[in-house]
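**Reference record**
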Amino acid sequence: MKIVDNFLPIEQFNKIQSTLLSDCFPWYWNDFGTYEGDGDGQLVHSFIVGSKINSDSFCLFDDTNCFKLLNVDMLHKHKANLNYKREKHHVGNYHTDFLDGNEDILTTSIMYINTNNGYTMFEDGTKVESIANRMVIFDCSTRHAAVTCTDEMRRVVVNFNFTTRS
C-alpha cells in the first residue's frame, strides 16, 4: 500500500474538486453502498464502465497527470462515490472492488476529494484518513471498507481500478 499526499498539482486537483463538489455535478442513486448487498445506498458517478468512457466528465482526469502518475495502462472501472454525513461513523462491509477474478492483476486507487473525519479502513487494521488530494494505491485483492464522516455534509472519493504499464 502506498499513500501519496498532494497527489496532483494544486491547480489540477482544484479543478476536479470544484467540479465534483459543485451543485451542478450529476450524481446518481445506487441502491447499495460500497458493496452490493451491504444495504447502504450512496450517490455515484461512473466515469468508466466496462473499460468504456461513460461520462463527459472523464476529461477532468484525462486532462491531468492523474493517469500518468498512477502508471495506468487500462482503466477497468473509474467512479466517484458520495456518502452523506452521519451522526455516528458507519463502517461499510469489507470488500474488493472486483469480484470477477481480475483482482490479481488490477490495482485500486482511492483519491480523497474533500477533507473530513471519514476514512478507509483496511482489513489488516490500517486506516487511511480522508484528506483532500490524498491518493491511496493498493492491490485490488486488498479488502477495505468505507467509513462515513460525521463532521462534513458529505464524503467524496474517486475510485480507480486499472492495470499498470509494464
Remarks:
- The two ends are 18 Å apart (CA to CA).
- The first strand starts at residue 2 and ends at 4.
- Confidence is low (pLDDT under 50) at residues 33-38.
- The helical segments are 10-20, 59-62, 66-70.
